Every structure is written in structure tokens, then in C-alpha cells.
Amino acid sequence: MTAAPSTNLKTNGQSTAVIALPRAGTVVALLAALSLTLFSAVACDSKSSSSSSSNTSGSSGSTDSTAAEDAEDDGTGATGPVFGTATITGTVILEGEAPSEKKITMQGDRFCVQHNKKHADPKLEVGENGGLPHVFVYIKKGISAKYPPPEEVIVLDQSGCMYEPHVFGIQVGQTLRIRNSDDTAHNVHSMAKKNQKFNIAQAQKGSIAEKTFTREEVMLKFKCDVHGWMSSYCGVVKHPFFAVTDADGHFKIETLPAGKYTIETCHELYGTRTVEVDVTEGESKEADVTFKKRG
Prior knowledge:
5-stranded mixed beta sheet, 2 helices, 19 strands
């Protein structure tokens, strides 16, 4: 591109230098080049922003999807554990005359025979004032927050040719350690309906196996195929608000947030019962449950 020559003008006898403007064609070319440069810069910046937005969306897509699935699970999409100061206590009672105690007959195994007639059948046990032991009690409705599984390991032991404990609770994802403390062979057969079933042999004393559960399931039964009298029941839930009644039917669920809850109680022989409880922060409320004896 060639610049136009400058011209000297004389005004009132004085010489003034004037720089000539570029030709019209040159101006048009300059404007076109400038427009193209600006367009390219905007396009690149837009493409970079779009790519960054796409990458951000892609990286959070699975998280958003998971959150949506979580929200679908509990109806709220809440993500963090929430604890409070409310407490629910109660007693689970069997109405009417308690069944007769029955001792378990153990035969067919030289080790187990030494424990013959020493253990009462757990499902027939009744405590003081009709209190029912071995009842799993948990919050069935009213918990929306997410609770990670605790590091504490729950132990299911085989001792004296019985499962110990007979009834217990565990959170989804929490480790269950199954141990054989007997000097005889056992097997542990899970009768899961919602979780993956397993059937493991523990032929020697000291054998240990560890399992976790991925879904809620109340109740999940374990049995020993070698010794037909051996059984245990587990309540698998997504939160830590559960309990098992003691020898006289008492239970306590602590650190609850204020709210309205549905409590379910589960007994292997008498079935389930539910009760509604509304608690405020710092409040302690009783929720007794009564089962009726079956025929």
C-alpha cells in the first residue's frame, strides 16, 4: 500500500505542511482488515468460553445426575448428614401371656452337643412386664439427609453354635465382619432379597469374612445350613437412627433432628408395627409399641 504524497500550502505567506489522506480504496481495505481481525478474536474467545462451559458441564454432569438420583431416592436431594438433640425412647411389649420358654436342641455335631439345651430360642424370649427383646427399631420415614457409612465394624460372631447378636442393625456401606469362634465348621448363608446373596463356609475356628450391603433391607436373614437352629436378622438402613430392644424391650434413638417420624418395629415372630412421633429440638418423647401374641 503506497501513502499519498504530502502537500505544502501557503496561507498568509506562511508555508503549512498538510499530510494527504489515504485514497478511498485504501480506507476500505483497512476497515475490512480491522473487521476481520475483530471477528476472529471474538470467535476464538466465544469458542474458548463454549469449550470451557462444555468441560465444566461435562465434569459436573455425573454429579448433577447423582444428585438428581439422590433427590429421587429421598424426595429432597439433601446431601449432608444432619444431627439434632431430640431423643425417642420406648418399650416394645407383648400383650397377653408370654409363650413358654424353649431350649434349643443341638445334635449331630460333637462340638455343638456340649451346648445342647443351654440356649433359649430367641424368638420366644419375653422380658420383664412383657417386654420384647430382639426387636429392630428404626426411623422408616422422615429422614432426608445423607449419612456416610461409619468406620465402625459390626461383628456377627458364631459362638456356642449360635449367632451373636441375634438381631442387629447396620448402615448401607458399613463393614460387617463375620467370625467363627467355634471349634467346628459353620457356613453363613444370607437370604437377601434386595442385596446380593452369599453363602460362605467357615470351616476353622478364627475364620473371618467381611461383607457390605448396597441397599436398604429390613430384615435380612442369615442362617447356617450345617446347624438348622442357627439364625440371625439384620436391619440394613441408610442412616444411623436405629436400635435393638434390650432384654426387657427398651430402646432409645438419640441425636435426632427435630421433625415428624414414622418408627417401625420388627420382630421375627410377631411381624411389624409402626408409630408416628413428632419431636422438637432438645425434646425427649416416648413411643411405646404393643404386639399381640399370635395363635
